[in-house]
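Today's session is about reading a structure prediction critically. Students often jump straight to the picture, but the first step is always the sequence itself: look for stretches that repeat, for charged clusters, for runs of hydrophobic residues. Only then move on to the predicted structure, which in these notes is written as discrete structure tokens rather than atom positions. Here is the chain we will use throughout the hour.
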Amino acid sequence: MLTAFLACVMLAFGIGATSAWAEGEALQGTLKNGDKPVAGVKINAFTQDGAPAGTATSDADGKWSIPVTGPGDYRVDLDQSTLPADVVLTNNRPSLTPSVADGQARNVLFPLGPKGGAGSNQPGAPAKPSSFDRYADLLYTGLHFALIIALAALGVSLIFGTTGLTNFAHGELVTFGALMTFLFNVTIGLPLVLSGLIAVVIGGAVGYLQDRVFWGWLRRRRTNMVTTMIISIGLSLAVRYIFLYFFGGETRAFSDYNAQPGEHYGPFTIAPKNLVSDVIAIVALVGVSWALLGTRLGKATRAVADNPALAAASGINVDRIIRLVWTLGGGLAALAGAILGAYQNVGYQMGFQILLLVFAAVTLGGFGTAWGALVGSLVIGLFVQLSTLFIPSELKTVGALGVLIVILLFRPQGILGRRARIG
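Below is the predicted structure for this chain, in token form.
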């Protein structure tokens, strides 16, 4: 029933029209010098064994695209001899090796900048960031990513605390929020902030309907938690492929604040859109935390999480509280999706791709505790980014999960979790 509802929402708002975007696998990108597109630059693609896979030249908007024959690893070369005389490749990496998934149009980024940047030793050499600047940038991106994870993790933790459900379909709520934001911003043409607000409201409504027509029904039938968890895995797969069918396999950007250049704030270089997103996320997290601690509904929620039977005996409507939690979790997940879409573009798997880190944050902080989810998200987000100072970026997620394992070996209940007696 939930999958049918999501399909009807997408059909009603016209997301099905976007399925024509992805006509198979492709490599694509946009070349810009600051906010100015760079045209006439030649891009060459090769398969893993070195065979030519295609060639493209950036157009007047700096865009280029190379259709490829299927999923796999590719090498993409930027021909630096075709760059304008006043533009250079700022990271000195003219060759990149992206992986293309089934049905994916993979974005490939070549950062460009003006020739002869500040701090260069040779005329025309790009400026190289210092180790301190790199540390500062990674510290900020870690905090920004941690806030995104925290928004999703808080919903997961609250739902687990009140129902005992480990919801593997929560990542699809994150994706749904990004898709709804994309729909209202790109398809309908509303401002991004308003589109995100509408997406949060719709995400909360979807969370409420999930419990009203599906999870609540399973709960009344006294379905055991293992079975319910397996059902959530199946639901996650079904909804993800509904997204793929209607949205397509490639990633797309919002129409507002796309490729926004960063501004300097002391040692940090931050795009204004990310700074605004951080403020919105912090306000949302602080507001929910205050509501849990300082309102009657928050106290009732904590009572249900501690002991549902005792809460019901004291006059608390447990089903009403659980639906409130699902509504809140759906809204927070949608907000996480909107912010994540502005940070790294929108794709049908974006929620699924961060789901493991969300679970890691909740587990690390302590399952069922809201504050634990926030602390765990902070640890995971920072470690994922800062670990690239010491290990290859391809291993940053593995490193974060390794830290999770080590911490849980010494504190199995998580950082803020409570010891539970078993047996």
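Discussion point for the tutorial: The radius of gyration is 23 Å.
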